[in-house]
Amino acid sequence: MDGTPLDDLDTAILAALADDARATFAQIGARVALSAPAVKRRVDRLRERGVIRGYTVRLDPAALGWTTEAFVELFCQGSTSPTTMRTAVERYPEVVAASTVTGDVDVVVQVRARDMQHLEQVVERLAAEPFVHRTRSTVVLSALVRRPDVPALPGEP
């Protein structure tokens, strides 16, 4: 991204696309009070700037059989590079997200699994990575808030 701040219309367009990436320019225009061609021009500019990197679909993990979710904290030995950590956790299809963090934990990994037995297997495999000293897991009971990448506009519910 080039660092130019987004205006309110760009932010509204991004929120509309985050809600439904298949929405037409006309549908988005109706939502943000612009014509379809004006929306298209703005979307094209947002793509050129790298703000929009692609379009995707949001799936329901439970409908696909991934009913168990957990956050697994990895405590690493020595000074393990983020590249080494990323290379390791990318190999796991169960890993939804992974981030290096501050504090005594080195990496927090969001994991989805079919059930508790599958989760246990994933945690055991993560713990067996050569750079992992120990793990700590927290199982998600219920997801209270899940938002798209674009936060709501100020004043929107």
From TrEMBL:
Keyword Plastid included in the entry's annotation: no
Coiled coil stretches, renumbered: none
Domain HTH asnC-type: 6-67
GO cellular component, as recorded: cytosol
SMART domains, sorted: HTH_ASNC
SUPFAM superfamilies per the UniProt record, alphabetical: Dimeric alpha+beta barrel, Winged helix' DNA-binding domain
Protein name listed in UniProt: AsnC family transcriptional regulator
